[in-house]
Specification:
The chain is α+β, with helices and mostly antiparallel strands and about 750 residues long. It has 13 helices and 28 strands. The radius of gyration is 40 Å and the shape is elongated. The two termini are about 60 Å apart. About 30% of the residues are buried. The N terminus is likely disordered.
Length: about 750
């Protein structure tokens, strides 16, 4: 609301001096062009200027208020005052220049005080940490100086008032004399100036008094904060002294204690370390034990205590990922059976030199909000996106990246113990997320019928094939067979929602893994991925949820928990914990680590019932051997930050190869143009391919309609290399490999492939 105008005069009643907390009086306020200026009662108090029609209205009806802390004060002429704050403007008028000056002085002082109060409140809301110079003696000395200076100012004010009164008397006498008209006007003007001088000096003294009050208040607050910090320091010193005494007594007790084998039936759950044992008397399982205090219904661990040697090893390879294990760590799993470690899993060197770099990512700017604001709540696969949001890989290639650590499955295939095998399968399921920590870009949505093969038979003994078997909803089928004793297959449907601040990606579908020699058949599902700061801030990705891995032959299970990131949590970021149990629910291994760095396993030696948890549930305390490394993430290639943070495997996925199917993702033109840095051409090509796919779908819909009208059966789209079958384990109907692809590759016959590019 803006109220403008010019105007008239006002009368003022007696009011406190401008330096006081409250100032009242009559002013004329501009209302509109019909009524002009209207007489209103104004009250200035606590940094707020309010007005009423009459003084009686102060008890019940306020007509308007303006906050002086954010207001601008201006004077248009001798009697006008203009106040503006935000979209509100008051045009006020006083009767004389003296009256106007009184109000302006009062308003300026009230504004300054309101700003100070606002700043003081802001300071009080934070942690009060007085500096080392603000001690008590210095504060009190400063206050004494301020009091002395205020006394001097008061003396000067008395003198000014005395001489000002004498000056006004003299001027009044001069006005009484018979002087020319012009001289009388000048004397009157001098008299008004003298009055203004006296008012200003009084206001200055009042402002100084307010400053002293504020300084005293601030001093008391600093003194309280200083006293609190002194008490805290004393308390910390006493606590540290007590801890030092306890440490010394424990150290003496440890030196004096006889060294004997620990064979007590129940182990302590909160001790500082495990009892030391003789190597001659202790078994391998009794060395370097740990205690995991776990919730019964959750694999999240609360406390961990270990012997000194174990703590030393864990400090070198802790869950923070600050330092990585060496390659030899893969063969240091003492609790694994020898059959799991007889081959490193990478004994054959690659026969072909793969590429180690791609062109650097161009630096193109893009208004993200202009595109995203119309996409909230929509299915991500149905949103037309420019390649600026993509990385030069398709979803089929991202799915193939799960095989980055295929050697875990090679190693698991050689395990005689199904429980040890389960630990390696769990590590493999976690390792598939390690490449996502910096990969916030979106892969290309595959076209219907698009395929991707990864033939590493000569190098690593496996062959992988993916095909986009459905477009709405988008679904991809994946099949991998390895000469080293395992087969993996899955059908993944991606459900994704854009929520404004973050993007949720929910993979639907089960992953199957079967080992040829033992027949062990494992099934699990993926967790939810969340991309944060979609609109504002730096993008980052998190994984959260639970994974249950089931061995359908033995009914053994592994429960994995991916802890979501929390700013207030003290846990290691990206933490993963798990428990491997047999068919009877008896826990045998504890798994711990992070999904972006490594996973460790520890064999459970003994379990006992502990105290009640925060929710009243009884906890189980696990005593374990020292943890052993299962999986460690490979370091990213040099210059990876400029190559979409691709891993060594990801850099090779889109490398051109001879003999692949005509529908292979490597032959997709928009993806190839993006990889080469030609993004404008890639955007145009992407639109062409999507329109071609839509036209093909319209054609199929028309054929289905014609068949329905003619009473004929219509099969619809049929995938080329996969067909739907009911899974005997999960009972779900999904796509499985029906064969023929690798035979067609050997024959170099791709005549059956549709034209999708």
């Amino acid at each position: 609301m803006s109220e403008q105008g010019k105007g008239s005069a006002s009368a003022s009643t007696a009011a406190p001096a401008p330096g006081s907390d409250t100032y009242k009086g009559w002013l004329f306020k501009w209302t509109n062009y019909l009524k002009g200026y209207q007489r209103r009662w104004f009250v200035l108090s606590n940094g707020l200027l309010s007005y009423y029609r009459t003084q009686a209205e102060m008890a019940h009806t306020c007509r308007g208020t303006i906050n002086l802390a954010t207001a601008h004060i201006d004077t248009e002429d001798a009697c006008n005052i203009v106040l503006s704050s935000g979209g509100r403007t008051y045009h006020l008028k006083a009767s004389t220049e003296v009256e106007r000056q009184r109000w302006v002085t009062a308003l300026e002082l009230a504004k300054a005080k309101a700003i100070r109060m606002m700043n003081d409140q802001s300071d009080d809301s934070g942690d009060e940490e007085p500096t080392s110079q603000s001690d008590r003696s210095e504060i009190q000395g400063t206050l004494k100086i301020l009091v002395s200076k205020l006394d001097d100012l008061s003396t000067c004010n008395d003198l000014i008032a005395k001489h000002g009164a004498a000056l006004q008397r003299s001027l009044s006498e001069l006005e009484g004399l018979k002087v020319p008209l012009e001289g009388g006007e000048k004397i009157k003007a001098v008299n008004e100036r003298a009055t203004l001088f006296r008012i200003t000096s009084n206001a200055m003294i009042n402002a100084c008094r307010d400053f002293l009050d504020l300084a005293e208040t601030h001093s008391r607050r600093l003194q309280r904060a200083l006293q609190y910090e002194r008490e805290q320091r004393t308390h910390l010193e006493e606590t540290i002294e007590q801890l030092a005494k306890q440490h010394n007594s424990l150290e003496r007790a440890w030196r004096e204690a006889p060294t004997h084998a620990s064979s007590t039936p129940s182990a302590p759950t909160t001790s500082q370390g495990s009892e030391r044992v003789n190597k001659e008397d202790a078994s391998d399982e009794d060395e370097d034990t740990e205690y995991f205090d776990a919730m019964e219904d959750s694999p999240a661990f609360i406390t961990v205590t270990a012997s000194e040697s174990t703590q030393h090893r864990r400090s070198q390879s802790n869950l923070s990922g600050a330092s990585g294990g060496q390659a030899s760590d893969w063969n240091q799993d003492d609790h694994m059976s020898p059959s799991c470690n007889n081959v490193s899993g990478k004994e054959l060197l690659p026969r072909r030199q793969r590429r180690t770099y791609i062109p650097d990512k161009p630096n193109y700017s893009l208004n993200l909000w202009s595109i995203m604001k119309n996409c909230i709540g929509k299915e991500l696969s149905k949103i037309p996106m420019p390649v600026n949001f993509n990385e030069p890989l398709s979803m089929l290639q991202r799915l193939t990246e799960d095989l980055e650590y295929h050697e875990l499955l090679d190693k698991a295939a050689r395990c005689e113990s199904s429980l040890e095998q389960m630990c390696l399968v769990a590590a493999f399921s976690v390792s598939s997320y390690s490449t996502t920590v910096h990969r916030t870009a979106k892969p290309f949505n595959p076209l219907l019928g698009e395929t991707y093969e990864l033939d590493r038979l000569e190098e690593f003994g496996y062959r992988s094939l993916c095909e986009q078997v459905s477009h709405h909803p988008p679904a991809a089928a994946h099949h991998v067979i390895s000469q080293r004793g395992w087969t993996l297959w899955q059908e993944i449907t991606i459900a994704s929602k854009f929520r404004g601040k973050y993007l949720s990606i929910m993979p639907l579908g089960a992953i199957h893994l079967q080992f040829h020699s033992s027949g062990n058949h494992y099934v699990w599902r993926k967790v939810t991925s969340t991309v944060h700061n979609i609109i504002v801030g730096k993008l980052w990705i998190d994984q959260s949820g639970d994974i249950e891995i089931v061995n359908n032959r033995t009914k053994e299970t592994c429960q994995l928990k991916f802890s979501p990131y929390s700013y207030f949590s003290r846990d290691v970021p990206r933490k993963v914990t798990g428990v491997v149990a047999d068919s009877g629910g008896q826990a045998h291994y504890i798994l711990s680590g992070t999904w972006d760095d490594k996973m460790e396993s520890a064999k459970i030696i003994q379990s006992s019932r502990g105290g009640s948890g925060s929710e009243g549930k009884q906890k189980t305390v696990y005593q374990t051997s020292s943890p052993k490394l299962l999986w460690k993430k490979y370091p990213l290639p040099e210059n990876a930050e400029n190559m979409y943070h691709f891993s060594a495997l990801a850099l090779t996925l889109n490398e051109p190869e001879d003999g692949v199917a005509l529908t292979d993702s490597r032959l997709r033109p928009d993806q190839r143009l993006m990889e080469e840095g030609r993004w404008d051409e890639a955007n145009a090509e992407k639109q062409r391919l999507e329109e071609k796919q839509r036209a093909a779908r319209r054609r199929r819909d028309a054929e289905a309609t014609d068949a329905l009208d003619e009473g004929r059966d219509y099969e619809g789209y049929q995938s080329l290399w996969f067909h739907q079958r009911r899974d005997p384990v999960t009972g779900e109907t999904n796509f499985v490999y029906k064969g023929g692809y690798w035979e067609s590759k050997e024959r170099e016959d791709w005549s059956m492939c549709p034209d999708i590019f």
